[in-house]
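Example 9 (inverse folding). The structure is encoded as follows.
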């Protein structure tokens, strides 16, 4: 994560929240930047933590309620189910999501999150999540709009998540907005 030049605090927030059978991942961009954006994004994170385990549309609705009277946010959520081997995701606004495939018959193939226009806290679209089957090695990336949308053009997807995130931030941060990139890899299930 990197703040827009001139702001001490980023208006973006991210969440990695372990669940009994998986993990919830989120990247959130408070509208605008600075303190008010950060407060809104933090309120959305709290709403997600308070309702962890609820279905994604319910989580977005809880964030929407929590943000009444505050700035809105755009957000993308992804829940990885370890037992079901699925990734379920939902995006409101323009936080990009991409899965880069590792499976032998689809290496490098991209699946992109369908982003629904709207602002959580002011106007919600229909909240319809999509689900994908996942395999170990699949890579998930969420990126706010302070990261150029071409960020996955020249990835070495087999690198470890943190160096990948660092490199994307370095190479693709636009410098005109707060920038957040969250990278997660699906691992072999623990036995
Ligand atoms: Mn932004």
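The amino acid assigned to each position is listed next.
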């Amino acid at each position: 994560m990197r703040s827009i030049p001139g702001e001490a605090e980023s208006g973006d927030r991210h969440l990695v929240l372990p669940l009994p059978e998986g993990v919830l991942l989120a990247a959130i961009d408070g509208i605008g930047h600075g303190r008010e954006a950060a407060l809104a994004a933090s309120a959305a994170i709290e709403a997600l933590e308070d309702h962890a385990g609820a279905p994604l549309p319910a989580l977005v609705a809880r964030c929407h309620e929590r943000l009444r009277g505050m700035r809105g946010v755009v957000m993308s959520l992804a829940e990885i189910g370890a037992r079901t081997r699925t990734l379920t995701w939902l995006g409101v606004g323009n936080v990009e999501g991409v899965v880069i495939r590792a499976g032998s018959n689809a290496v490098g193939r991209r699946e992109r999150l369908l982003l629904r226009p709207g602002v959580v806290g002011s106007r919600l679209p229909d909240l319809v999540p999509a689900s994908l089957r996942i395999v170990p090695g699949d890579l998930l990336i969420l990126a706010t709009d302070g990261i150029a949308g071409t960020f996955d053009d020249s990835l070495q997807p087999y690198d470890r998540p943190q160096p990948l995130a660092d490199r994307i931030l370095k190479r693709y941060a636009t410098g005109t907005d707060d920038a957040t990139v969250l990278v997660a890899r699906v691992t072999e299930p623990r036995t």
